[in-house]
Amino acid sequence: MNALPRRRPNPLSCLAGSLLLTAMVSSAAQAAPSQQLIDAAKQEGMLTTIALPHSWCGYGEVIAGFEKKYGIKVNELNPNAGSGDELQAIKANKGNTGPQAPDVIDVGLSFGPVAKQDGLLQPYKVSTWDSIPDDAKDAEGYWYGDYYGVLAMGVNRDIYPESPQSFADLNASEYTNGVALAGDPRTGNSVMMTVYAAGIANGGKAGADALNAGIAYFKQLKDKGILVPVNGTAQNIAQGTTPIYFDWDYNLLAMRDKLDGNPPIDVVVPSDAVVAGVYVQGISAYAPHPNAAKLWMEYLYSDEGQLGWLKGYCHPIRFNDMVERDVVPQALLDRLPPAENYRKAIFPTLKAQSEAKTAVADNWAREMGVQ
Fold first, then answer.
1. d(CA 64, CA 50)
2. Quick check: 28 pLDDT over 80?
3. Which of the two ends of the chain, N or C, has the fewest CB atoms closer than 10 A to its terminal CB?
4. How many CB atoms lie within 10 A of CB 349?
5. For residue range 46-64, what is the model confidence (pLDDT) as tens digits?
């Protein structure tokens, strides 16, 4: 995140070069929350999160770090929920000040503007605001990018000693009953973007065109008996129920480390479609603990919080800014996959993702024969 003018390459459009986002070095990068905010958050005493599995982006350590730093209990709701479920949780708890009402959300990029439009978020600009790329945040502060990764395949090498390298490879009969998605693309952003990536690999251009091409691809896998009608999970890949499944690279890398060779897992970025995705944070407009929510955001966008995500293999949105200031330990940099795996990455725009969401809602059930 270099000291460059504010007009910089759009990190959410198609990129042929480096995956790294451009940003500015700012004095705000080392800013801290006010004592007044800290005191108000401590008085509230609790923060309610939703859809934050501890293995996702290193969230387990991030949550523990926040609790230790500020002494505020984190109440964790439904860690396996999808982005759509998070918005629904806000809607369903508008008048609820109890523990079932989420204070904050972490959703796929396309869900941020939807949540703002539906009046589900309140604006807040963290003290490190200026070092978040302009194209990865809402100008009014309703949502802001937090981290990104690329879609990849996790492969159980006990079952497939030679890992497939592309979406095209998976069409082979040797992968019968071998390929799975991590959920329903109508409710989970990572799954929708997996279908999108498959569409790009099969000639889809962008938006609905890519999504529909992806549906056609997975329908073909289903018709051939290759697609497993079971959600891909760490347990299922280890047991061989879903020996290949798609997810963000950071989730698969964390899973690989946790399994520790039992079984051995390959994490493969498909050579025919490298699709990156940005996730965003937002504070519920109905947050029962608004000050704790703001302090949580301050923590996530501090150097400490951003490094917490990097430990979980996610590229934090302020990554380049921190590299420029030499605050990223070399040991963390050495753990990241080779940069060449990401050089062909594309970042679907908000418009493309919005079109994809509409297409998957309209066509997935009909084409795949599911409810």
1. 15
2. no
3. C
4. 18
5. 999 999 999 899 999 999 9
Say whether pLDDT at 334 is over 70: yes
Following CA atoms 124, 296, 252, 234 in sequence, which dihedral angle do they give, to the nearest 10 degrees?
A: -120
- Rounded to whole angstroms, the Cα distance separating 309 from 344 reads 23
Distance CA 244, CA 156 (A): 6
In degrees, rounded to 5, the angle at the alpha carbon of residue 53 between the alpha carbons of residues 301 and 113 is 55
Report pLDDT digits (tens) over 309-329: 999 999 899 988 898 899 999
Beta-carbon contacts of residue 123 (< 8 Å; ≥ 6 apart): 138, 140, 141, 142
Task: Tell me the mean pLDDT in the region 243-262.
Answer: 94
Count of residues in the chain: 371
Q: C-alpha dihedral over 351, 353, 355, 361, to 10 degrees?
A: -160
82-96, 244-258, 329-343, range with the lowest pLDDT: 329-343
Q: Where do runs of H (alpha helix) occur along 47-147?
A: 59-70, 83-92, 111-117
Q: What is the pTM of this model?
A: 0.76
Q: Which of 149, 73, 84, 111 is nearest to 282 (CA)?
A: 111
The residue ranking higher by pLDDT, 15 or 245, is 245
pLDDT over 50 (residue 238) = yes
| Cα atoms in the 13 Å half-sphere on the side-chain side of 250 | 25
Region class of 332: left (phi > 0), else alpha (psi between -120 and 50), else beta:
alpha
Distance CA 31, CA 282 (A): 20
For each of the domains in the chain, give its residue range(s) and CATH number, in order of start. 27-148+277-336 (3.40.190.10), 150-275+347-368 (3.40.190.10)
What would the two tokens of residue 176 be? 């019968």
301 beta partners:
none
Q: Looking at residues 321-342, what average pLDDT do you find?
A: 84
- Alpha helices by DSSP H, listed for the chain, are 35-44, 59-70, 83-92, 111-117, 189-201, 207-223, 234-239, 249-259, 290-300, 303-311, 319-324, 330-335, 350-368
